[in-house]
Amino acid sequence: MVLLEVRSGVSGQGSGVSGQLKINLFPQIKLILTCFIQKTFVTIKLILSCFIQKLITDSS
Length: 60
Known about the structure:
By secondary structure, this protein is mainly α. 95% of the residues lie in helices and 0% in strands. The N and C termini lie far apart (66 Å).
């Protein structure tokens, strides 16, 4: 932790700002990804269940 702070201090203000942006963006990206995966999973489940029902009704 201290090493990171020293590095950002040495290399200047710019890298410190980009480091903060990465830290702030990461939880949001994780949240968006989780939401996207859940929505995709629900959609796939819906399509699969419809497809299975269609197969069952076609065969009988």
